[in-house]
Amino acid sequence: MSLTKNDFISKIKACTVHLTFDTTFHCNMECPICIANAGPKISKDKNIPTKDMEYYANQPNIGNILITGGEVSTLGLDYFRDAAFICADSGHQTVIKTNAKWVREENAADYADVIYQLSKKYNDIQILEKTKFANFGVDISVGKDHENSNEYALEFLTLLPDKNSKSFEYNLHFVASDYAEARNFQRNLESYGMRVNLKGYIVSPGCNVFGKITQLERIIKLGRARINNIGETPAPLAIKTTDDLLNQIMDRGRDTGKESVCLDFYPNGFVYLIDCDMNFLAGMRYKENNVPMDLEQIVIRLAENAYAKHLR
Q: What's the pTM?
């Protein structure tokens, strides 16, 4: 028997909530696989205020937090620093995604210091029953589809004050066909004592390096990836019952085994309920009268909107 609407909303309400802050869609690169279609022609005027990020990062029942874009560093050093410290200091696992192109700027050492200080501050805090899991990591893409990001990332290493960076976690995103190049880059990072996760982008099912990558993520044909015909076409949603919708929304296994949902905050003032394939299942403005709504209220309203949209 399928869940009732009230049971469905109650289950969504009880989930851990993972937050993504798409701070801006301005970017100093124009990568062919960018699902956000970010680039230098998009204005920096619209961005997520750091006070909004602080408000939501400190709400109850948060899982992990991703700070991304576009490229967050294009909003300036103060914004970059504030966003990183606000989210990491909330006590939740925080990852900042950057292409590290700021290494060519005059204040490159200041950007590097933000990352270095946070990686030191949150050094391997364990997951215990009554404590929060707080660590800090950097996520960067390498390979031919990301301009000179390999060079930028290696130059970033030279800005670190020492090689004793074992608190540092580095996620390497790469197109699977660039595995050999990414593996060499991984060894460079590991020489600095960093923990490195290889996270391969799957471009085609025929790729033969699946067994060598710790985590696989598909490139979904969205944004510029769709324009350039790269990646996989999202599977059509097959939602007929409340149970189907619940399974589509819930993202199991991203934190401590708890059932969770993912909310994506956009610089246009909207927040979206998304699934693992980047399907936008429901959306709404996250402020009323220019005041941020409570996260629980947002989750309930998005669940109601998703129910109305997919189960008419």
A: 0.86
Determine how many CB atoms are found less than 10 A away from the CB of residue 207. 16
User: Which pLDDT score is estimated for 17?
Assistant: 95
76-97 mean pLDDT: 92
128 CB-near residues (< 8 Å, 6+ apart): none
Q: Are 202 and 232 in contact (CB under 8 A)?
A: yes
State both tokens at 230.
Answer: 């790269």
Report which residue type is found at 141. S
Amino acid letter, residue 252 = R
Sheet of 169-175, strands arranged across: 215-218, 195-202, 169-175, 136-141, 94-97, 62-68, 16-22, 260-265, 270-274, 280-285
Task: Give the type of residue at 83.
Answer: A
In the chain, the largest separation of any two C-alpha atoms, in whole Å, equals: 62
- The pLDDT value given to residue 56: 98
Question: Is pLDDT larger for residue 125 or for residue 64?
Answer: 64
What domains appear along the chain, each with residue ranges and CATH number?
19-228+281-292 (3.20.20)
